[in-house]
Specification:
CATH topology of the largest domain: Beta-lactamase
Largest sheet: 6 strands, antiparallel
Structural class: alpha+beta
Number of domains: 3
Oligomer: single chain
Low-confidence stretches: 20-30
Number of strands: 19
Order of helices and strands: HEEEEHEHEHHHEHHEEEEEHEEEEEEEH
Shape: elongated
Amino acid sequence: MPLNRRQVYRRRRLAVFGTVAVLLATAFYLPTTLLAPLSPAAASVTPYEVPATTAAKLTWPGYGASAIGAVGIDGVLGSSGSEKALPIASLSKVITALVVLEKKPLESTKDNGPTIDFTSADVQIYNDYVRDNGKVEPVSPGMELTQRQVLQLTLVASANNYAQSLVNWAFGSEATYVKAANVWLDEHGLDHTSMSDATGMSPKNRSTATDLVELAKLALADPTVAKIVGTKTIKIPNIGKVTNTNDLLGIDGVKGIKTGTLDEAGACLLFTADYTIGNRDVTVVGVVLGGEDHPSLDRSIRKLLKSASKGFQEVPLVDKGDVFGTYSTAWGDTSNLVATESKSVVVWRGTPISMDVAAESVGLEPAGTDAGSLTFTVGDETIAVPLELSDSIDDPGAEWRLTHPALLF
């Protein structure tokens, strides 16, 4: 049956509107689909096993009090024996040197400081210590020595008379020095250490093994003291050649610091030694108090140092390129989350190690884009390693966009 004019018109109108609708839909759909932002991809983090370390085993002397630590590591690594403050004998002279240098600093390791004039009063100091059977070096009225030379006689030769003459020069009297020394100890957190004289001849000069480990770190941080305590022999005008009282110098990496001997204290040694672990240098500090004599004390310290050197371990944390996660997109692109650098750490055995991965969501990005970080916690230390994309995440292209609209909106 032929269509009437109204039906023909209606069909033409539907065709026109339908075409227009298709054109409008296409005009909207195509650019929206082709230009629509893609949802960012989140990383699937790869499980990681944190390196484990076994506890260190130290060979402690069976007497007195002992402790060891390391420069750059807070506190002590281990201790043994008495925890009480004990007489420290001539280890006191390390405190004396540091307190004097705070009052009268030397500008560098080449600065000898001012000249100190010696008088009959210094000769009397010498005679007093000879009477008390203290360690001394000769002095005479009219002698002139530099501040550095007097420090050398104090720390290398352990000359009691020069230690007291030094504080008399710097502070006016030993009593004034003692007040300043105890203030200095408080300021540096050495709460269990006390001083009654400049030399250590007084058994009232006391400290704990743990405090003395911190004192050793302070001594090594002072370039003047660090250099002097590592000196085997020196030549002093009007005195001659003086040999360090520390017989362990140069043995098993030992580079100082100070001997001490007193009836009430026994044989004592505040020591430091350097070791190379992997490609890193480690400076160990320690102390042993209360030895029977210095030969047996030195043997005990050598055993302790041998065990301490084995107590450090180089632990590989991460290698460059290690994978810590994977990004996968709806259109099939993948990229790994990889470490940008290798990291290892030298630790004291038994130090806890943990790790966190922070992975960012990423969009269309080239390879090498920063995408997160690793944070290793090694004891009290934090080590960060950046993470990046191993491969680029590219646009899926027009065909995929047009055929997967549900994944775009």
